[in-house]
Amino acid sequence: MSTNTPDTTNTANTATAASAVSNSTATATAAAGATNPASSADTPTATPAAPLAGRVAVVTGASSGLGEAAASELAALGATVVALARRADRLTDLVARIEKDGGTAVAITADVTDPAALRAAADRVQADFGGADLVFNNAGVMLPAPIEQLAVGQWQHQIDLNITGVMNVIAAFTPQLIAAAAAKGVADLINTSSIAAQNIFPGFAVYCGTKAYVTHMSKQLRAELGPKNVRVSAIEPGIVGTELQSHVTDPGAQQWLEGAAQQMEFLAPEDVARTIGFLAALPPRVNLQQVTIMPTGQTS
After folding, report:
1. What positions carry a catalytic annotation?
2. Other Cβ atoms closer than 10 A to 96
3. If you average pLDDT over residues 69-90, what whole number do you get?
4. pLDDT-based confidence at 43, cuts 50/70/90?
5. pLDDT (tens digit, 9 = 90+) per residue, 207-257?
6. Backbone dihedral region of 42: left (phi > 0), alpha (psi from -120 to 50 degrees) or beta?
7. Banded model confidence at residue 150, pLDDT cuts 50, 70, 90
8. Which of 201, 287, 179 is closest to 252 using CA atoms?
9. In what side-by-side order are the strands of the sheet with 187-192?
């Protein structure tokens, strides 16, 4: 199974998907109560080569793994990317690579478990870009261990990042998504869950529980935000090849992951990044609410 990577304790999910072309165009409009520094005349128009031109995408957990790959992919599709994570040096490198490839990105150093830091980040996105219309809510961590070990510190860390951190991002950026959807006709909230939300993995109880929360909460949010033209999706990847494995400390889980690596080819971060781009570039009338992405060799 997999998670996302906001920084040294993040995990990354991935998936395969074809790239998509949106038949809609994006117009930059100021969110309610704020001034967009760019006029509509300056806003790029979506094209087949750049279907996300004119969109502003916030990516959490952007310093490595899935978040890093998604930031690069969304920029390549024309979006202005706001890369958010704790590791400033990695964000600087990421922004430099995106700009070298012709994309547009800025870095904001913040911890998703800090509500005040996220509010400040959202304020900056509003002031500099007129608000976000795409949020990839990706920061997370996976720390498996048998429940009888009573690793309560690791339990709490997973809850803090995978649940509270996810909700902090939603609290900070949902007003911008609603305003953007009203102005442009569409906005996207894409939450990283995991195949662990659906399946049973001994030793992964707390992690599985946090990801089940993300999947079910995403469905609930879609019922509320869909009528406002905000699409909500949950991505559920299987095992992904990232720095995730180096964060696992339980010997049993380490052995299981090592064995799995010998039996199958893991997903790569770029696989799910292409899926994120695909979802965001779909016509506004289309919302894939739950996408499960598995390595071909992973059966559960």
Report:
1. 207
2. 12
3. 98
4. low
5. 999 999 999 999 999 999 999 999 999 999 999 988 777 778 888 888 888
6. alpha
7. very high
8. 201
9. 104-109, 80-85, 56-60, 134-137, 187-192, 230-237, 290-293
Q: Is the distance from CB of 105 to CB of 76 less than 8 angstroms?
A: no
End-to-end Cα distance, the chain: 9
pTM of the model: 0.85
CA distance 209 to 200: 10
Higher pLDDT, 21 or 161: 161
pLDDT of 24 over the 80 cut? no
Classify residue 164 by burial, with Cβ atoms within 10 Å: 0-12, 13-18, 19+.
Answer: middle
3-class secondary structure per residue, the chain: CCCCCCCCCCCCCCCCCCCCCCCCCCCCCCCCCCCCCCCHHHCCCCCCCCCCCCCEEEEECCCCHHHHHHHHHHHHCCCEEEEEECCHHHHHHHHHHHHHCCCEEEEEECCCCCHHHHHHHHHHHHHHHCCCCEEEECCCCCCCCCHHHCCHHHHHHHHHHHHHHHHHHHHHHHHHHHHHHHHHCCEEEEEECCHHHCCCCCCCHHHHHHHHHHHHHHHHHHHHHHHHCEEEEEEEECCECCCHHHHCCCHHHHHHHHHHHHHCCCECHHHHHHHHHHHHHCCCCCCCCEEEECCCCCCC
Instruction: Work out the angle at residue 68's Cα, subtended by the Cα atoms of residues 65 and 70, and round it to the nearest 5 degrees.
Output: 105
Token digits for 266? 């893991």
Task: Just give the CATH number of 49-293.
Answer: 3.40.50.720
Question: Is the distance from CB of 20 to CB of 281 less than 8 angstroms?
Answer: yes
194: tokens are 């995991």
> Which tens digits make up the pLDDT trace of 222-234?
999 999 999 999 9
**Residue 94 to residue 8: CA distance in whole angstroms:** 15
